[in-house]
């Protein structure tokens, strides 16, 4: 599965308000860039899609988990997860939303600020 699900399209409805505040809305996926790009175009997502190949950023945020062998087998059989993610780690990210300020302070919308700052800028890359 991917973060490129209906939630990403729904978040796009907030894009005008986010843009007005000089912000950006992005989606993060463990999928390889080519696959993520195809899905984003097919679903007409109004946001940038960043590929976190190797789950470095997701791990830094603590939102990646390893599937049980039974679930991993089903995901590989149905969704071809190894091909989509480019590895056989059998990991998926949890759905999460964060606001990252220009000073890299991280806040969970509708919650209090998280202790710490965003992962290093070098951890983020765009395809």
Describe the structure.
By secondary structure, the protein is an alpha+beta fold. Helix content is 35%, strand content 19%. The protein has six helices and seven strands. A three-stranded antiparallel β-sheet has the order 5-6-7, with no helix packed on it. Strand 1 (26-29), helix 3 (33-42) and strand 2 form a beta-alpha-beta unit. The longest helix has 11 residues, at 69-79. It is globular, with a radius of gyration of 15 Å. Residues 1-6 and 111-127 have low confidence and may be disordered.
Average pLDDT confidence is 76
Q: Which oligomeric state applies?
A: single chain
Tally of helical segments:
6
Strand line-up across the major sheet: 5-6-7
Shape: globular
Low-confidence stretches: 1-6, 111-127
How does the helix and strand content classify structurally?
alpha+beta
**Using only CA atoms, what is the Rg?**
15 Å
- Terminal Cα span: 19 Å
Question: How would you summarize what this structure contains?
Answer:
This protein is an alpha+beta fold and 127 residues long. Helix content is 35%, strand content 19%. The chain is globular, with a radius of gyration of 15 Å.
What is the topology?
Elements: H1 6-11, H2 15-20, E1 26-29, H3 33-42, E2 48-51, H4 56-61, E3 64-66, H5 69-79, H6 81-85, E4 91-93, E5 99-100, E6 105-107, E7 113-117
